[in-house]
Amino acid sequence: MRVGLYARVSTLDKGQDVDLQLRDLREYAGARGWEVFREYVDEGQSGAKDRRPALDELLADARRRKIDVVAVWRLDRLGRSLKHLIGLLDELHALGVGFISLGESLDFTTPAGRLMFHLLGAFAQFERDIIRERVKAGMANAKAKGKPIGRRPKIALGDLRTAVDLRGRGESIRGIAGVLGVSKSAVHKALLSSAVRDAEKSLGIPSADPVLQGPV
Question: For the CA atoms of 188, 190, 196, 197, what is the dihedral angle to 10 degrees?
Answer without folding.
Answer: -160
